[in-house]
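Now for our target.
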Amino acid sequence: MDRRDLLRATTAAGGASLAAGLLAAAPATAAPTAAPRRRPSAKKPLRVHVVLFDGVEELDFAAPYEVFSAASHHSDRGVEVRYVSATGATSVRAAYGSRVRIEHAWAPRQADVLVVPGGGYARRESPGVWPEIDRGTLPQALAAAARTGLTISSVCTGAMLLSAAGLTQGRPCTTHHRARADLEKQGGVLKNARVVDDGDLVTAGGITSGLELALWLVRRELGADAATGLEAMLEYESRGTVWTSSPA
């Protein structure tokens, strides 16, 4: 049994109670208090599609991918996580040179959650968000994907791709601190929070906030026990404020 399997095995039973103790000791702003928006069906797995493109930031997509993948060990409801590309690419080269293989087609109607990472926003000529906006394929695909039952989310400057798709216009949202002014100029209603949950649109701040985004969505979709169990397994406590439009 490798280290990760051992960790999963030892924390699956006791993780929820351990993490609950850890969260009780944390500052009030660090632990989200809002109730999940809806009760998911126990029969159908939560389907998460993580969107990739050349120049995507490694931590932006890897952190949510791991959190959602591990969530299946802490919930009776299954979780299916896959990488997808709106351009039909079979692999991408990420910001720091990692090559990631994409084995699934773009199919947002088969997803419950889309996660859009960022990357390369400070380097307009380099692969990343700017070339994707200029090309238009991904923003158009995101705009067409929006539908009832689908939550579209972003990490860091992935919010600028959602903005290019017209999805943040007049909506509460956030992004990396260096892109906040641009997001506001384009019609986003900025909130000073680590994660901003406006129902079917959920955005997160800087690079590491992908952890908070995924943990919050796990809490919302799979329940608090799943989220606290994950925190114990990952040895990570959610930090920062979650702004939500739903009543607490």
